[in-house]
Structure formats: C-alpha cells, structure tokens
Amino acid sequence: MDSDELEAFQQELTCSICMNCFLDPVTIDCGHSFCRPCLSLCWEEAQTPRSCPECRGIAERPDFKTNIILKRLASLARQARADHDHRSEEQICETHQEARGLFCEADQTLLCGPCSEGPEHAAHSHRPIHRAAEESREKLLKRMGFLWQIREEMKIILNQEAKKTRSFKDYVALRKEMITAEYQRMLLLLREEEQLHLEALEQEAKEICEQLKESVLRMTQYREHLKDMYRELTAMCCKPDRELLQVLVNELKMTDLAEMQKPQPVNPELTCWPVTGILDILNNFRVDDILSQTMTIHHMSLSEDGDDASVMFRDEHHGTSRQPQIVESVVSWGVRVFTSGRHYWELDVTHSSSWILGTCKDILITDTSISIYSEEACVLFSKKVNNHYSLFTNTPPYIQYVKRPLGRIGVFLDYDNGAVSFYDVCRGSLIYSFLPSPFSFPLKPFLCVRSL
C-alpha cells in the first residue's frame, strides 16, 4: 500500500471528534461512527436529547455496542502506520542496525531481533510492538470503562447527598419544633436550658450542613477528576506505540490511586442533649408489666389504605423488592388499653438492632405475621439502610438524624393532649415527639424485636 492509499485508508478510519484513528469505535443511530471515549465525553457535556456530533441527528439509544469490524480495521490502520514509521532511523538498533520491532515485557523496552536473543533478554517474553500496544490499549479501555462506571455511580451518590441535605434541613426545622414543645411542658426554671439546647442544636446543625456541603463539593471535584483522568487516558491511547508502552504502568497506578481516594457519603447525626430532670418527671407516670401478650412471627408490617408496606428488617435500596426477608421476630403487646391520662413505660432493645415500638389501636394477627394500621399508630423503629442502622417514625414517615439508643427506650403517652414521645433512657434525652393530635380511639403499647 503506497502513501496515498495508506492516507486514504486511515482517513476513513479517523474519528471526527479527536481526529485520531478509531479507539473502541461505536456506530450510532444515524450511521456515523466515533470513538466510544470521545462520544462519552461529548455527550456528557451536551444537553439532552443527545445528537450526532457530525450530522446533529438525534440518537435514540443511550448506549451502543462496539463496532468489531471497524475496530479491527482501525487496528490494521495503526499497524500500517507503525510499519511505515519503522523505516525511520530512530527505530534502528545502533548495535545491530536492525529495526526495533519487538517489545520486552520484563524490561519494558524496545528490541531488535538479535537483541531479543541476547543473554539479557533471551529468557524474557517478547511480542511484536503493534500487538503489545493493542493489548495495552485494551487494558486502558477496560480501566477507562471502570472509571466511567465509578463516575456514574458517584453521580447517583451525589444526587442522594444533595437530597439528604434538603431532608436534613427539614428535619432540623422539625426537631426545633419538638424541642420547643418539650420545653414548654417543663417548669419556667428550664427556660435557660432550653435556649442553650437550641443554640447547641443550631451550631451542630450548621456544622453538619457544612460537612454535607463539603461532601457534595468533594464528590463533585472527584467526578471532575475522574473525567480529567478519563480524558488523559483517552489521549494516551492515541499516542505512538512506544510512548504508550513506556508510560502504561504509571498511568494504571494513577487510576488505582484515584479509586482509593473515592470520597464516602456523610451520615448526619445530631447529639441528643439530656433534658434536666425529664426522667424524674416521667417516672411519676410510670406503668410496669404492660406487655402481657407475646408471639413469634415472620412478618411485621405497617399498612396504609390496605397496601402492605413493610418497614422492618430489610435494607432499603432503590429498585429492590418490597417484600421483607423471612426472619423470626418476637412481638409483645398489652391487653390493657389507654383511653385517658398520662402513662410512661420503658422497653429494652439492648439485644436487637432492628425493632419497632410505640402505641397502636388494633393488631391484626395471623399464624406468622402481624399488621397494624399506620394512621392508628405512633411508632418509632430502627432498621438498616445502606449498612447503617437509622431511626424512623410513621405519620409522617421521617428519618431521625440522632444517635440510635442502645439500651432502654422510654415511651410517654399523654392521651388527653394527643401526644406520644420517645426518650433515650441512658442519655436522658428526647428522641422524637409526635406533635399533638387528638386521639379518638383506645391505644395499647406495642414492641417488636428481631431475634438474634
């Protein structure tokens, strides 16, 4: 193939974005072909809908398969260019006056035939330069695909972190209302402590919001860093074979280091400050031995409008089944019901990470499962989400950004004022207080714990 034919052949195998020979080529809906890395970077920066960089035709599909035939032709074009370049003097071995056409994997050097048979390299593995370079490009393409996948995952986590910030701010506003309502039930002597408590919450919330803001910034910067590295590797793949092989190891180490530096999401958690004398006051309304009925079940659920919505003992991941795992749990409830007055009791959850407790109107029982209606209950529950145990409440469903109790939990029912509150007995602090809403039905205490 003469120079003109070679140039025409290579022109047909050139990506119109990077103006280099195709690297992992894909053919989109309109029929035009581009390097996959070039198209990924181009579409990542463009607005939707995605269009062809050449004819501006709309691309319906988000992803495309590698054009294998085009990839092989591009490899042949690179080899033809490499064979043409071998005629230059800089590719000639000074010792044997032969072309350096082999690559030594052990020493990462270019050799001629006689050099490869010498005592220094005879025991090493040698391959033609073009084949070694093409295999190196494949390694880089796999690593680039892995980096892009991590970057897409970070996009999802970044969105979750941003939503978490908004949810956390809403929760802080709600917690201010709870704390204010709690202190309004206290004596006037506690007003100063209330103010200090709110100031501490404000300061701590400000610090956590700053951490979340910094987390979003770190993740954004990390994604951009991955993009820059991806772009750098794309450019590296287009370099001459010898230059590519000589820097491959360092580039792969850089990607390994980038993976190790992947930032982790923030788990916001407020300190539960103790409320002076709260347990002493609540113990004036203490009732004991209230859980007189017990049974073992496989399924515990909160139901709303007939739609079974299980809340316990399963990780909550987007797209997973709503059916809970089949696990054994122990449920206890009281025969005695409350229709007036103030009542306080404590429940021990020391030996269980997943549990649900509070008050409810009715309990629907079968041989292996129990259900309660969410609108007729005030409950606090602990479950595992993304390898982290968190607290939640129903009506409305809210995540509680406070430390999960590891011992006893106090439940205070103020029936006449329509309030139910939960306390961390060990810390003497408020966990959550349902805002007052009049009760129109009897309530009974309730506890469900997962068996270990």
From TrEMBL:
Which SUPFAM superfamilies does the UniProt record give?
B-box zinc-binding domain, Concanavalin A-like lectins/glucanases, RING/U-box
Q: Pfam families, from UniProt?
A: SPRY, zf-B_box, zf-C3HC4_4
Q: Ranges for the B box-type domain?
A: 88-129
Q: Which InterPro entries match?
A: B30.2/SPRY (IPR001870), B30.2/SPRY_sf (IPR043136), Butyrophylin_SPRY (IPR003879), ConA-like_dom_sf (IPR013320), SPRY_dom (IPR003877), TRIM/RBCC (IPR050143), Znf_B-box (IPR000315), Znf_RING (IPR001841)
Q: Where is the RING-type domain?
A: 15-56
Membrane-spanning parts: none
Name residues in a coiled coil: 191-218
Signal peptide feature range: none
GO terms for MF:
zinc ion binding
PROSITE patterns with a match to the protein in the record = B302_SPRY, ZF_BBOX, ZF_RING_1, ZF_RING_2
Q: Which UniProt keywords apply?
A: Coiled coil, Metal-binding, Zinc, Zinc-finger
Q: Where would I find the B30.2/SPRY domain in this sequence?
A: 269-452
Per its UniProt record, what Gene3D superfamilies does this chain match? 2.60.120.920, Classic Zinc Finger (3.30.160.60), Zinc/RING finger domain, C3HC4 (zinc finger) (3.30.40.10)
- Name it: Tripartite motif-containing protein 64-like
Q: Which organism is it from?
A: Muntiacus muntjak (Barking deer)
